[in-house]
Amino acid sequence: MRNSNPKEVPSYKALREEQAKLRDLCGIQSIQYKSQQGDIYYLNDIANIMKKNFENPEIAPHIMYYPEDTDGAPRSEFTQFARLREKPEQLTPSFQKDNKHFYVNELASLSNGCLVIPLIWVTVKGKVHAYCRMVNLGSNGLVVDEADVRVPASELDLNFPEILAEIGSLDFTEESTSYAASMPNKYHELDQDEDHIVIWMPVWADDVSGARSKQYQKHVNVYMCNGSLPGKLVQQEYHVNFVGSSQQVSATEMLGQATHANPVRCYNAATGSFCRFRIQVPYLPADNPQQSEECSHIGHNGSFPCQICHVGGTYAETETNEGYEAFYNVGQPRSSTETRDAIFKQICLASRGVATHVDALKTKSGTADKTAQYWIDILLKKSSELRQKNPQQSVDDISIELLLWLVTQTKQPYNPLLDNELFHIQDIVSENRFNLVKALGELGAVLWITEIDDLDQYLEDLVILIANVLDAWALIDPAKILRKIKLHLLVHLPEHIRRFGPSVRFSTEVFECFNAVFRMCSVLSNHQAPSRDIAMKNGELGRLKHIISGGHWVRNGHIEHAGNSVIAVLQSTPIIQRHLGWVPPRQLKPGMVQCPGRDKRTTLVGTNTQAFTGSTFHPGITPSSSWILGTHVISQSEDICPIGSWVIVRYEDNHFIAQVVEILHPAAADAHSVKFVTVQKFTLSQVLHHYYQMPVLHEPEEQYTVVESTNIQFIINVQHDCRAAKCCATGSHRQRQERTESGREIACIEHVPLKRYIINTHTLHNAARLVKWHNEIATELCISQATKRAQSKAQAAATRLKNKEKNQAGPQAGSAPVRPGTDESRSRKRQHVQISEESNGYNDNDSMDIS
Where does the record place the region Disordered (predicted)? Predict the structure, then answer.
């Protein structure tokens, strides 16, 4: 900088002063805390972080306020699943209409004059509704009907204060007095006529190394995200927020400090007005050891290794048939009350001075808590000291004295908080291990979906796939079922999906990716105050993200935001987008064709294209027309499909599988020009592959098919059947080093020209679309077979009627009569039976197993 002699560059001191001003104006505050053990650490203010979400125009419009009723439509978001219905008091309590706020558990009237009590608010196809209970006027007062009725919120007319002002007092009957006790809602006064919104905030914690080298420098980190956002946003690093880090304090201690009692007031960029919000934690995503700590669980090496249920026992118990089978099922669930009682019993036993009794109780209950263990060690030591100091004092007196001392010390009650692997290993593992990989591949493809059409059917299939995985493991090493707790935790997965949604929604990869940001902040710290330095640096990154995203802040009662030039930095600079983990909305239009640059384009006349010689000639491709060869086409699922890719094509109300051969873009094109794709259609085998148990594709004899680019539905993963073709490493290619050919040749697999392929149903990408397409094809096949059978049945009935008429007409002239019981009569009856059996319209050639 000095050598370039720039002008108007601020001094280092002026830069720090300006940063401090921005921190006070629109930054995230780092707050110092002290743990019960006396350790000092820093946390970024979670309420301040969530305020930035509401003040950010890139985030606020996407926040989902209420649970959603899908009414049979596919489910994908957290708000569409059961967790939000478990505790209605945790949900958003109010709804605004015509500058009036309606609260749950308060009396309201509809536009038709009926009285209702809203219980929860939900959205249905983007419109807010309320589950209400109707209120009728009886002879002794107001009577509440216990049946729930869903009412559009647009029909609400008068809220509780207006009804109270009009009537004066509300008299409920004796059986309905419990409803009157909750009126008015406790948030009515706190909100001061502003929106009240509940934000769901998953909190992730884990131990992470603060060094980039192999030396492990343990830090316990806590991150969080806004779980009220759509899943496609939650999985972006941009929406991960740093909370705190410490080398001494556990995650449960840090989480215990990050609480608030009253709703937080902030500006809502989506509505242009102020609102208030509360934070609820729906779940704590983490790896298994960290979840055990958060659940006050003894760990997965204990006798009861599951933090969710009570499965387990001694070695002798788990090795029995009943004990072993228990790991295949969901056991008796643990509860917070039970865990709290077990910890309190451990503390009471510790006050009596016998460590072995405490350890025995931990083993028996499977409960152990880090924070409680700190006080248990102190109580054991103090109990021994008191016995030595005063041998005459009884154990009960010592226990009471220590428990009273513990209450004064803690100051508050304790509150506990695989895609293509199958094709790579086929010849190098045993049959049992290969079957295990197949079972894992089938399970992975079902788990890695973002949208569920039929939840009950999906969970039924999932239970079967999980059982297949456990059975496959048991064939290899039965003891793994007992020792590997991850296998048992699979059994709990269906219930978790029922409560929280698709498993990818509560995956931890996005938090683990954020560790790179933390590690860079750790490396730049001098480690004199690492918790403070890392928290402040992440706060500065959050402030930068807020400013260049167009975030708002309040100064002197006025709403402000950065200028357009500053906001344009994020929108127009890809390197900034990558650094912040922000993914701009994809500008992909289904059916769009991408062409090479002008210097690399290949232009063909219609007669020179492969489409012109296709078996299904398209009238849009004339001999004199001019076309540019495209590089890829965008499918309806917004997949990029280059030449050679395998796709599902919809053509003339039929679906088929094909390989992209040619992509054509008109040379003189306008916005409405039709683009074409030449594909080679493949036929689906009637049976699954005998080894992989996957659908098989064969090349037909017919030529290419020409379809419009908008007919490409989605891309699929197809592999060559190297096992049947006996493909070996007979080929070679030159290795490139430093962007040049080195002259060194490397052996590679050379495919034998056998046009036989396998649909990889274990692939994660588009797995849900492939299953849905399969179901549609299977349904069409069932309908067509049913139609054939009905036609054959009608034809057989007509034949029998015709034969019956012949028999009634008597024998023809010149023919001998057929007497009952003769061989000829029996032969005719057998013939009728054979006709009936052969005419049922079903044979092996008509069946198609593509499951």
Answer: 794-851
